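TA notes, week 10

Several of you asked for a full example with nothing omitted. So below is the full record: structure tokens for the whole chain, then the designed sequence directly under it. When grading your own attempts, check the secondary structure regions first.
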């Protein structure tokens, strides 16, 4: 690319690899700003000095030398192919040797470079072989995937810390495993390969951007100033020769049929063959006439419904006939015309799921078809319902099926004669056509057009009476119908119809029939010629000398020329004259557009054009030489039809006439075109009534033209050339490519070795405002993984070289699985539909978004930071208040709180044991819903005393020692906690290891015990055995456990004296938890903070001894621990404890308990809520029968340390509304490591809410997701594009103050600005408890001060991004309510392209992409975005997800996915709070432990 700035492409120059490497490095330096433009040019010139003459074309001798190796190699390849011809069956479809040479030469230019091969699980492999698991060393040259990436790379290198988050209070070397990946990990070596391929610079960075609705800048490709432009004069309208006057030309087609049927009844009209090639039946003109009459009479007179005739003239009738029965079809077609009914020929629907069948149904419905004609044999073969009637196919109207075999027809009465009118503008028949998008339309052809078209074809082809014609095409539509059913009857010709089934068995059959019937004309497609070439050696004695015309109906296809040339080469010796081959071009709308005239009519000699592919992509015609790689060779399709006018107009917008050297859409004005799309006025006007205008806007004619959908130009001698179809047009970054040309290139990459029967589909999908090319091929059953990967990489290179365009997605499917069109081709629109729906089921897929997507937004450049002072001033000027808010003032709140007079929780428990000894505090439920254990104030006090005695006497512990409590959720845990307080020890609650999963759960227990410096472990007998077991020894060093005390049997001793702390600031307990980023952090809670926390929760939730609350949370850390162990003792209310683990065996346990105890306030976690929604979704009726009633619930709070999950809370509310749950009851809370309870939404129903103390309902706002990436909040309307709903996290607790601070300057931010949430409150934690005294980190997180404004207050930094917004609602105090919105954890965010992404947003998009995606998690690794997807479906769907995931992330987040990993459900680790552990997942992926179903490395 750099070289192109020097005026010539380096691609053509054979530079040594090391020079190319140095150039690439230089380019990278320039794009990253490490070198000036001047320095770059200087160094580059020096590097290229030796090769410069080459580039500027000074040394031709050198260049000639260079071209020789290429050509000799290409010829070698070709000769090898010719040798392999004989052994090969007809698998390879159309091949141009010229094109193959070009492709081979293009591939020879590429250096060998390694590309990571996707990894598959064995079960997914069609052929499992060991090699598929490791990237092989000798890859064929893989494609260059560097395009457009390098200019962004340097913006995407986040420091590892920003991905992992700073391990709080930890020395990073201890816990960080993510980056110390073993070098031999298969994953890391593949990603390294991927990065190497992505590093090479290729295209220059794009300069211009356009604004997409907001300041999100999508790059738009500027036109290349050097791109070719048309220079010729404006073309003139071309006129065909006049239509000749024939004296006895019949006034209508039916008049002709009547004439031959009555005057030449014995003349043969049509011969049908069976699959062996034997003539089964010859229909004579007499028979055709009499049977058509019988059918017409029967249809009009014998079919009734409720005593009314079923049909009246002008009604549409479906014709459903197999390709093997032309005779019955012809009778049905002419029978309908005679009855003045309009035939609509369609394909035989074989199954209910035929490709495109639903669309055909829509067409029949819109045409009002109620009757279908068919044959006895065909009707028997159709799928039947249980009643014996033909089933109604999906999307089809209800049809009456009428069999037209002789026995079902009535003989017309003597006085009945059909009316034979002259050809008029009434509709004669409707031909269906499937558009690029897959919708089916019906094109109406009038009687006059039908007649005029027969006339024009007769004149252009020189048809004469009683000629014999061999027809290989589908006789129901297009050229097969025009020549083999309509024009043949006009001229009393004899048609030999060759069924498709016979061609499959014997591809030579049509040639044999031409020979045996001495046919003068044959109508074929290039495929038929190609197939017969492959089989011709079996027949020595065929002769084609009788042919005066071989009409090639698809003469406009890019491969038809090579088929024609090759066919002539072989059959010239068998009597085929070169001038007999007559390609033609046609379209459903305009019928025949042009046809090469037979020699006796004296047309000009055939033409051939070799065009530059690059210029064609800009719509410009430039002749090139065949030596060039990227050329397209096309043949002419003859002259335009007699009596027609033709012009070429611009494809887009107003139909301006093209210049002579410009490609455009061919338009025709003549009496022989179709009339309209049935029932579709809008598109009819555009297509059938186009008015071409000159450059000055003057219409070229007063009559409308019909657009043909063919792209082409008029060459010398007024010959028409077609270079593509509008339906196959793909516009990528402003350049036009033709799907057929891309297919031809892909086929030239060793097709016979790999692609099954040459079946390749190419189409485009729109992703991120541009077309992207998708290529789908069927691979041969015996292809290995290695073959397919090699073929894919070669195809990418070939297309890149020849078309200069990237392929976005290349998919391989097993042989015979693509949807088929009626005659065996590929149904493109259906294939595209399946691709987009994720129903294609490929067995191999390669995505290249890095190469293709060059219009990503410009990476965000960080602006020099505005200082905090200027920000405050800016906010003041803008009239914005500083974003701060606080809960009610605790000191002002008077309440009869007896516990307030105690400084310590241990005192409160003793006081309660004395004053209300029998008051029940705790009730623990088991999975059956029965009470497993209870504790009153006195019982709890007594048990705590016994624990304290054991600690002092058995454990010999001193005041201030740390004790680990390893218990399942239950009363024991609570009692031992207070026992530690009584003994003056510091408790740490630890989740016990899972007996079935010691390897992963025990190391965490061990780590907490070690990091917390626990001097003793208190636990149960069962767990004691587990900790010392053999299995445990395999996971950890069991010799280093501290003293383990089993509390199951403790002496009943009274404690001499209960410990009283010397100051409220002494440590009460340690709270350890593993963050979602995989970091273990323990925080210190003082006695003062513990009491303050309990008081704040009591005030917010109005907890009194008379209350009952139900808690379904884990009791080990955070707010869950506080609610289990602290609050009941402080406030005296009764807690019903439901361990979340029990829900695994009884999902309805929690809700049943809430209903049974008529609980008003309940707490749960997101994982509990999710279990209920998923597990009870279908059982609400059953629960209602069991008497579950949730109308008692005033508030159900989800305890979380994350952004509220709106979708989950809403679906939970909706689902259980049937059980009486109020829509307003569910709310969320927010806490984090530095302060476990910042927001709680109190009772929102009932008396207190009416008195107004509860405060307003939580509000939801919609923010622009793109602004969020730039750390800005932009409020938008619900439903607007890119909107993201955020729900307020609950009401701020009493005594808590919150402020939003800038993450870097630490200055205060204004209302509705995104920043870090800082909190100040008496119950903040005192700091991290860590082995390594990281004082700086402690100070930064727990004792931060604002850099400006109020610099005195000490704040704790939560590590969460969010914003405050003053709402219109009022608080209990009458003040305006400030809502706090949590956006997400800073540690979790991904820095990509200079922007900040929250993983949850990307994951939400991905989960929506396909119904089989159960869960998703994303993380980054070396600048690549890795998406892990859990597949809930069959493994064959796995590869469908790769493209869908890549598309959705590009569309919604403007990010390119680097790696897509598809795994089984349950692989993504989730912690007890229901949060995804993305870093554990990342470590598992890099250490190759996920056992993925498929890993795709996007190029």
């Amino acid at each position: 690319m750099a070289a192109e700035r020097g005026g010539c492409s380096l691609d053509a120059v054979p530079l040594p690899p090391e020079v190319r490497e140095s150039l690439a490095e230089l380019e990278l330096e320039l794009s990253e700003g490490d070198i000036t433009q001047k320095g770059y040019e200087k160094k580059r010139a020096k590097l290229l000095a030796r090769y410069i003459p080459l580039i500027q074309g000074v040394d031709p001798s050198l260049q000639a030398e260079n071209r020789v190796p290429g050509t000799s190699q290409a010829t070698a390849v070709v000769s090898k192919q010719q040798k392999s011809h004989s052994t090969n069956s007809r698998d390879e479809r159309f091949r141009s040797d010229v094109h193959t040479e070009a492709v081979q030469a293009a591939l020879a230019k590429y250096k060998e470079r390694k590309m990571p091969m996707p990894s598959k699980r064995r079960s997914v492999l069609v052929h499992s072989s060991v090699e598929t698991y490791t990237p092989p060393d000798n890859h064929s040259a893989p494609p260059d995937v560097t395009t457009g990436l390098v200019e962004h790379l340097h913006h995407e290198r986040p420091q590892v810390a920003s991905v992992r988050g700073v391990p709080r209070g930890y020395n990073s070397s201890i816990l960080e495993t993510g980056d110390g990946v073993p070098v031999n990990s298969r994953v890391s070596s593949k990603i390294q390969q991927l990065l190497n391929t992505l590093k090479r610079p290729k295209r220059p960075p794009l300069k211009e951007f356009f604004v997409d609705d907001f300041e999100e800048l999508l790059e738009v490709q500027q036109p290349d100033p050097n791109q070719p432009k048309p220079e010729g004069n404006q073309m003139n309208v071309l006129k065909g020769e006049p239509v000749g006057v024939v004296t006895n030309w019949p006034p209508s087609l039916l008049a002709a049929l009547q004439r031959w049927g009555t005057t030449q009844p014995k003349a043969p009209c049509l011969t049908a063959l069976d699959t062996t090639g034997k003539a089964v039946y010859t229909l004579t003109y007499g028979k055709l006439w009499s049977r058509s009459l019988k059918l017409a009479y029967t249809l009009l007179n014998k079919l009734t419904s409720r005593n009314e005739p079923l049909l009246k003239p002008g009604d549409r009738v479906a014709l459903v006939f197999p390709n093997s029965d032309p005779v019955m079809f012809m009778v049905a077609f002419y029978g309908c015309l005679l009855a003045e009914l309009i035939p609509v020929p369609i394909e035989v629907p074989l199954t209910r799921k035929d490709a495109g069948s639903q669309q055909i149904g829509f067409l029949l419905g819109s045409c009002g078809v109620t009757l279908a004609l068919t044959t006895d044999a065909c009707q028997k073969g159709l799928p039947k319902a249980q009643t014996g009637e033909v089933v109604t196919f999906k999307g089809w109207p209800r049809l009456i099926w009428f069999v037209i075999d002789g026995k079902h027809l009535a003989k017309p009465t003597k006085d009945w004669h059909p009316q034979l009118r002259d050809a008029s503008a009434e509709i004669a028949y409707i031909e269906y056509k499937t558009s690029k998008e897959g919708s089916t339309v019906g094109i109406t052809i009038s009687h006059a057009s039908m007649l005029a078209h027969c006339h024009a074809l007769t004149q252009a082809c020189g048809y004469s009476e009683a000629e014999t014609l061999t027809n290989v095409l589908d006789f129901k539509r297009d050229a097969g119908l025009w020549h083999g059913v309509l024009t043949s009857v006009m001229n009393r010709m004899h048609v030999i119809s060759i069924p498709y089934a016979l061609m499959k068995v014997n591809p030579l059959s049509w040639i044999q029939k031409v020979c045996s019937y001495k046919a003068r004309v044959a109508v074929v497609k290039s495929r038929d010629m190609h197939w017969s070439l492959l089989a011709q050696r079996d027949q020595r004695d065929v002769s084609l000398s009788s042919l005066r015309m071989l009409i090639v109906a698809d003469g406009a296809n890019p491969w038809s020329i090579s088929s024609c040339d090759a066919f002539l080469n072989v059959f010239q010796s068998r009597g085929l004259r070169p001038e007999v081959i007559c390609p033609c071009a046609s379209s459903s709308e305009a019928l025949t557009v042009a046809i090469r005239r037979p020699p006796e009519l004296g047309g000009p000699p055939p033409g051939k054009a070799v065009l530059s592919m690059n210029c064609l992509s800009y719509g410009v015609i430039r002749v090139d030489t065949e030596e060039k790689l990227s050329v397209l060779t096309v043949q002419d399709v003859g002259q335009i039809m007699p009596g027609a006018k033709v012009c070429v107009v611009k494809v887009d917008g107003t139909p301006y006439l093209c210049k002579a050297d410009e490609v455009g859409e061919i338009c025709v004005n003549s009496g022989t075109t179709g009339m309209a799309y049935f029932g579709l006025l809008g598109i009819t006007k555009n297509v059938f009534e186009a008015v071409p205008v000159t450059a000055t806007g003057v219409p070229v004619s007063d009559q409308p033209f019909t657009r043909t959908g063919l792209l082409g130009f008029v060459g010398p001698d007024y010959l028409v050339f077609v270079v593509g179809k509008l339906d196959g047009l793909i516009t990528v970054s402003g350049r036009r490519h033709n799907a057929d040309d891309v297919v031809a290139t892909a086929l030239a990459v060793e097709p016979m070795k790999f692609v099954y029967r040459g079946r390749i589909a190419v189409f485009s999908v729109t992703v991120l405002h541009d077309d992207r090319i998708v290529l789908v091929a069927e691979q041969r059953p015996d292809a290995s993984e290695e073959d397919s990967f090699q073929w894919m990489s070669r195809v990418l290179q070939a297309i890149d070289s020849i078309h200069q365009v990237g392929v976005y997605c290349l998919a391989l499917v097993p042989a015979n699985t693509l949807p088929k069109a009626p005659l065996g081709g590929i149904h493109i629109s259906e294939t595209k539909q399946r691709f987009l729906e994720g129903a294609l089921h490929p067995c191999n897929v390669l995505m290249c978004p890095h190469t293709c997507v060059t219009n990503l937004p410009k990476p965000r450049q960080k602006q020099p930071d505005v200082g905090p002072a200027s920000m405050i001033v800016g906010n003041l000027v803008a009239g914005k208040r500083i974003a701060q808010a606080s809960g009610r003032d605790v000191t002002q709140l008077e309440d009869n709180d007896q516990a307030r007079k105690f400084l310590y929780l241990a005192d409160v428990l003793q006081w309660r044991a004395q004053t209300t000894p029998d008051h029940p505090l705790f009730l623990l439920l088991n999975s059956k819903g029965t009470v497993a254990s209870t504790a009153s104030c006195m019982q709890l006090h007594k048990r705590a005393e016994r624990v304290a005695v054991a600690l002092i006497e058995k454990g010999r512990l001193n005041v201030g020692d740390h004790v680990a409590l390893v218990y399942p959720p239950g009363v024991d845990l609570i009692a031992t906690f207070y026992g530690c307080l009584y003994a003056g020890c510091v408790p740490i609650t630890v989740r016990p290891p899972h007996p079935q999963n010691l390897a992963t759960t025990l190391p965490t227990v061990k780590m907490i015990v070690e990091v917390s410096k626990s001097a003793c472990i208190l636990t149960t007998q069962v767990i004691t055995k587990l900790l010392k077991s053999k299995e445990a020894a395999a996971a950890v060093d069991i010799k280093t456990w501290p003293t383990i005390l089993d509390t199951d049997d403790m002496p009943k001793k009274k404690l001499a004296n209960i410990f009283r702390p010397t100051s409220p600031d002494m440590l009460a307990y340690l709270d350890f938890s593993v963050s979602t980023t995989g970091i273990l952090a323990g925080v210190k809670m003082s006695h003062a903070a513990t009491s303050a926390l309990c008081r704040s929760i009591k005030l917010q939730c109005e907890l009194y001894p008379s209350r009952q609350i139900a808690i379904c949370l884990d009791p080990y850390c955070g707010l869950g621990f506080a609610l289990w162990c602290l609050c009941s003792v402080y406030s005296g209310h009764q807690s019903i404890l439901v361990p979340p683990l029990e829900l695994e065996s009884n999902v309805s346990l929690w809700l049943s308990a809430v209903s049974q105890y008529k609980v008003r306030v309940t707490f749960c976690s997101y994982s509990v809520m999710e279990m209920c929604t998923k597990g009870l979704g279908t059982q609400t009726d059953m629960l209602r029968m069991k008497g579950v009633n949730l109308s008692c619930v005033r508030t159900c709070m989800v305890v979380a340390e994350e952004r509220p999950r709106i979708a989950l809370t809403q679906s939970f509310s909706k689902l259980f509304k049937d059980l009486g749950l109020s829509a307003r009851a569910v709310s969320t809370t927010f806490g984090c490591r530095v302060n476990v309870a910042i927001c709680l939404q109190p009772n929102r129903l009932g008396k207190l809410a009416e008195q107004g103390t509860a405060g307003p309902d939580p509000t939801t706002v919609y923010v622009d997701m793109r602004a969020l990436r730039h750390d800005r909040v932009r409020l938008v309307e619900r439903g607007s594009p890119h909107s993201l709903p955020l729900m307020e996290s609950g009401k701020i607790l009493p005594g808590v103050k919150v402020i939003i601070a800038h993450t870097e300057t630490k200055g205060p931010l204004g209302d509705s600005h995104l920043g870090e949430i800082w909190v100040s409150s008496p119950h903040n934690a005192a700091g991290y408890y860590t082995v390594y005294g990281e004082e700086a980190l402690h100070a930064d997180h727990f004792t931060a001060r604002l850099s400006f404004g109020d610099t005195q207050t000490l704040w704790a930094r939560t590590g969460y991004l969010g914003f405050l917004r003053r709402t219109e609602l009022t608080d209990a105090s009458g003040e305006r309510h400030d809502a706090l919105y949590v956006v997400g954890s800073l540690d979790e965010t991904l820095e990509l392209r200079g922007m900040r992404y929250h993983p949850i947003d990307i994951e939400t998009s991905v989960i929506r992409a396909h119904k089989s995606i159960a869960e998703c998690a994303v993380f980054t690794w070396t600048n690549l975005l890795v998406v892990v997807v859990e597949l809930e479906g069959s493994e064959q769907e796995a590869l469908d997800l790769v493209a869908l995931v890549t598309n959705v992330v590009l569309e919604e987040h403007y990010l390119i996915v680097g790696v897509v990993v598809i795994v089984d459900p349950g692989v993504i680790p989730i912690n007890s709070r229901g949060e995804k552990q993305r870093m554990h997942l990342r470590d598992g992926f890099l250490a190759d432990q996920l056992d993925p179903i498929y890993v795709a490395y996007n190029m």
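The chain is about 30% helix and 20% strand. Use that as a sanity check on your answer.
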